[in-house]
Each structure stands twice: as structure tokens, then as C-alpha cells.
Design brief:
Elements: E1 4-9, H1 13-24, E2 29-35, H2 38-47, E3 52-56, H3 68-78, E4 83-88, H4 93-101, E5 106-109, H5 113-126, H6 145-151, H7 156-166, H8 171-178, H9 182-196, H10 201-210
Parallel strand pairs: 1-2, 1-3, 3-4, 4-5
């Protein structure tokens, strides 16, 4: 088979080096670029032929392409022939299900990076499906009319915190990114949940993801 051109995207230099090393062990793949934010990633994809992207789920910076689900949706919509592998520490079944629906080839847990990426690359090189344990698709039946109205009650800060939470960031990660305390972020998140009248993170994620509220 032809050599596949690969772009890696992650804001952690150690991860970039490690992923590059793993990929370059296989002569069927050629790393043609690295990005540390979604802007750089999209620019690389637009500048030349790329067959495979290995990207972190959470990407830094204020970018029109966003990160998390928003970024993956942009990639799959605007580069339909591109194969996408996602690196993450997220295990939430709603987010994993949505990534599966978007056509991501594999979701690789960073704490199992070495073994899982080699398995995924072997399957991709052979043109085979990547075999992974995937969550059962989750769906919530709800007319949503009431919730749509409640959503307008959120303050700008609450809206931003929910956007980051739905993208896959933890309360502590959001606090670091916004330079606030974790207690403040947690309080504002709980306030937003009260306004939406949802009682759990699962209900919150289900509603936001199924309605593509932050994309």
C-alpha cells in the first residue's frame, strides 16, 4: 500500500514526541506535520495531502475551530476523506458515542497510548476496522421545549463553563484554563445545572450533545 501522510496534534511536547516515535516505527506511515492548536491543525490539512490525523480531544486557545466535539465535527465535515484518531483521557460514554457517530476510527486513551496506537495503526494500514470496546449508543427521548427556554437563563460565564465541560474538560481543567479556582467553577456549574433543572452530569451531557448546543 502507499505510505500514509500523518499529522499529529497535541499541545504537550512530550505527547507529540512519543506519538511521532510510535508512528515512525511503521514505514507505512510518514509524519508530515505537527500542531499544538486547532488553528495549526486546520492550516496543515489545508496546505497539503494528509491521510490521517492523530489529535488530542482537548486543544488550547481561542480558535474558531474549537476543540473537542466541535473540532472533530469540523474535521469530518470539511475533510471527508480524512481518517481521524482521537487521543483523550475522557471515558464518558456520551462523548465516546458521539465520536463514534462522527466516524472517528479510534479513540485512544492516553494512559494506554503505546499499546492502543500500535493496534490502531496496524488496522488502518491494512484497511481493516479498528477493533475497540465501544459504548452502546445512548439516546434520550425528550421534547426539549422546556429545556430550550431554561437555557436562555444562563449567564455568559455559566454558558462558557458548560461549553468547556461538554467539550470534555474537567472542573479542574476549566479552572486552570480560565485562571479561576475550582470551587468557583464548580459553584457556577451547579448554578447552571439548577437553571436547566438537570440533576446529574449525565443528564446535562445528554441534553447538550444530542442538541449540538455548543457546535
Amino acid at each position: 500500500m502507499d505510505t500514509l501522510n500523518v499529522v499529529i496534534a497535541d499541545d504537550h511536547p512530550i505527547v507529540l514526541v512519543g506519538v511521532r516515535e510510535l508512528i515512525e516505527r511503521d514505514p507505512r506511515f510518514r509524519v508530515v506535520g505537527e500542531a499544538v492548536c486547532s488553528n495549526e491543525l486546520v492550516n496543515l490539512l489545508a496546505s497539503g495531502p494528509v491521510d490521517l490525523v492523530v489529535t488530542d480531544f482537548n486543544m488550547p486557545g481561542d480558535s474558531p475551530y474549537g476543540d473537542g466535539l466541535k473540532l472533530v465535527e469540523y474535521l469530518t465535515r470539511n475533510f471527508p476523506r480524512l481518517r481521524v484518531v482521537v487521543l483523550t483521557m475522557i471515558s464518558n460514554p456520551l462523548i465516546l458515542t458521539r465520536l463514534q457517530e462522527l466516524g472517528v476510527l479510534a479513540v485512544i486513551q492516553k494512559n494506554q497510548l503505546h499499546d492502543e496506537i500500535q493496534t490502531a495503526l496496524q488496522a488502518i494500514a491494512r484497511g481493516n476496522p479498528v477493533r475497540q470496546h465501544r459504548p452502546q449508543p445512548i439516546s434520550v427521548v425528550d421534547d426539549g421545549a422546556d429545556l430550550d427556554e431554561r437555557f436562555t437563563r444562563l449567564s455568559p460565564k455559566e454558558y462558557e463553563i458548560l461549553r468547556l465541560f461538554v467539550s470534555g474538560q474537567s472542573v479542574n481543567e476549566i479552572a486552570r484554563g480560565l485562571n479561576r479556582s475550582a470551587k468557583t467553577i464548580s459553584t457556577q456549574k451547579m448554578s447552571a445545572m439548577r437553571k436547566l433543572e438537570v440533576s446529574s452530569d449525565q443528564d446535562l451531557l445528554t441534553y447538550c450533545i444530542e442538541r449540538n448546543l455548543f457546535n
